[in-house]
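Instructor's aside before we start: the two examples that follow are unrelated to each other. I chose them only because their records fit on one page, so don't look for a connection. First example below.
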Amino acid sequence: MNYCTQCGHPVRQRIPDGDNLPRSVCDACGYIHYENPRLVLGCVAEWKGRILLCRRAIEPRAGLWTLPAGFMENAESTQAAAERETLEEATARVRTEQLFALVDVPHINQVHLFYRGSLVDGQHHPGEESLETALLLEAEIPWDTLAFRSIRFCLERYLADRRQGCFGLHHTVLPPL
């Protein structure tokens, strides 16, 4: 950030009084610009024992497989964001259940949250950000071509919980590669 969004003057990095981290601070109007992690919301959506996956049409990791997920919008609940992203990426209506996985990705300033869910009617088709969608059995999941480590973490925990018949909330912190 180079300029203040409040008054247009240049900002500089400094630790404001009463804080302990460098922030973009406007010396003209005193406004402190906080930059906080972005939330990525998604869903492990099932239909008759199969899991919905999308093959990405966009970067990063175009061509690789993922769960339907994306950035949360302002004025949206986490659950609504997971349902919206599933609709946008897979044109699938989903009924979300419980929050299932929380993945901290501090090196890129993101937090990934995944809900468990079920497709309302089993229908799915690629949205604008997907090349294709598929309902896959556990043995069909393309582990070698998953787009993100958070997706692997979520799917591994989900499948293990499903085999045990009991779902919990899982959390991890992903270090940089």
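Example two begins here.
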Amino acid sequence: ALKTLPAALEEACQQDWSAAVEPLRTASQLMVIGRGPGLAIAQEAALKFKETCGIQAEAFSGAEVKHGPMALVNDNYPMLIFALRGPAQQSLIALAAEMRGRGARVLLAAPADVPERDLTLSTAPQEDLDPITAIQSFYLLVEAVARARGLDPDQPPHLSKVTSTR
């Protein structure tokens, strides 16, 4: 499956996530949700939103968000939910519906066979590799959001490519 990953990554680069740029352009806070292998993707995405866009983004598991963080959700509260293939997918789709019912501005990233999706996730030849294709599509989105906010994602403020420790 690793041998076919470059083609899957190329497909992930072709996904059109531009519909998410405008809702995130003016966001000051954001929840990024994943579960199982998708939680690591949510954590990486939240970090990149902070670093490149200046958005106070926090990552939560789909289960954890229902134990307190959802109290923050109000009208148009932005949420990016990664619903990768696998056992957690249906619970994340249900969470997206519930948060939409609370008035949140949900951006559901899911494979093409999920009709409720807002953003299409490419799938890898092997399900365990789906997080890699998901984050690839996300990286193009976060760059576009940073630029829409007037920021240079290649020069995040207060960050350096080198970390020195003493």
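Residues 130-148 form the longest helix (19 residues).
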